Amino acid sequence: MNVTLKLPDEMVREARHLALDENTSLSALVCELLEERLRARSSGHQMTLAEALRVPGMPDWFYEKDFPLPDRNETTHREFSFETDED
């Protein structure tokens, strides 16, 4: 079935690039994304933000990176004052 969609030009441009990178068509990419959403909806599963931000076709290891945050206790703090040096 043919369907006409109104999408922002930049989004379509990016989606076409994504489809090319995945060696698929824009129609197939949109179909895959809709199937995922419909499957999640029918199963009663509410999509999390992390799931919504997943890029189709990316391997799982891409999302398993650990970004360590600095330890706040080891961070040196600078002393500062709101007083002016003027006398």
Alpha-beta content class: mainly alpha
What share of the residues does DSSP label as strand, in percent?
under 5%
Q: What does the overall shape look like?
A: elongated
Helix content: 25-40%
Mean pLDDT: 81
Rg, rounded, reads: 23 Å
Number of strands: 0
The parts where pLDDT drops under 50 for at least 5 residues are: none
Treating each run of at least 4 consecutive H or I residues as one helix, how many helices?
Answer: 3
Terminus-to-terminus distance:
79 Å
Name the helix and strand elements from N-terminus to C-terminus, one letter apiece: HHH
For the biggest sheet, the summary is: none
What layout of secondary structure does this protein have?
Elements: H1 9-21, H2 26-42, H3 49-52
Question: In summary, what is this structure?
Answer:
By secondary structure, the chain is mainly alpha-helical. The chain contains 3 helices and no strands.
Describe the overall structure.
It contains three helices and no strands. With 87 residues, it is an all-alpha fold.
Which tags fit this structure?
single chain, 87 residues, mainly alpha, 3 helices, 39% helix
